[in-house]
Amino acid sequence: LDWLREAVESGQIRDIHQALTPEALIPVGAAEPIQLDDGTVCDAAWIEKLVGETMPHEVPVVIHGEWEMRVVGRVFTAFRDDMHVSASPPLAGFKLHLGIDYGSKTGKQIAVLVAVDDRQEHPTIQVWDERVGAGNTTIEQDAEGILEMLQRNGVTWRMLDEAWGDRLYLRGHTDRKSNKDLMDALGRLLKVAAPHLAPQVGTVKRGAGHGAGSLDAGLRFLHQSMLRPGHFRIHPRCVRVLEGLRRWDYRDDEFKDPLDAVRYALDRLIFRVVRYTGPDRAVYLY
Asked: What is the CA radius of gyration of the chain?
């Protein structure tokens, strides 16, 4: 929106701006705030609820219509060790998702195993294990590390319901890794032709919704999950993911990579399509 902001500052466009306050929601000549269609009164308590459901760094823009977002301290302020860290096993009926980030800054591949129960409107998520590679590993060593992580949890590749990574392939980058290279390496280890791997490693940076703004969509999804009691848990052995949740401040650094892997594991849920069939019923199309 830089072009729009410049037009406002140069006087070409008039910016009529009002922060979201209870006073701003009272129509001229009325004594009470407006109401939503369901009868909800748009008062101070309603605004406070909206603020609580919004990522803190997005509040200036999303709630109050300002030009810039601001991050003060860590991004995931809703994360609490006493509420979200648990070694309890996942409940029956969960699915297994694998998310892989290739560490564009550090060169360290990070893979996370996430248990998901998506049978309800709001899925239950448990980050169950992680594998962090060294910066100088080959793609074959990374594939071995992922299979070792699965094995220590009694999981085979075929038991995975979904697997996602951030890059399909790269041209002109001999020192960077991709989903295609990883599938080739996994196929050799599992003695299966890469096209016959099940599941395939999907690529998150393709398709509708995966351009600019996809990062923030994933962050909002995780934030909302943390706000719902019992909907987000992480095993204490997931040291790098925990470190990211406790310390990441929106910079593109080492604390972001493990959180990217978690987002990738949940990609289908974050970007699922909702078809409304009535006032009280929604169908999720994956």
From this structure: 22
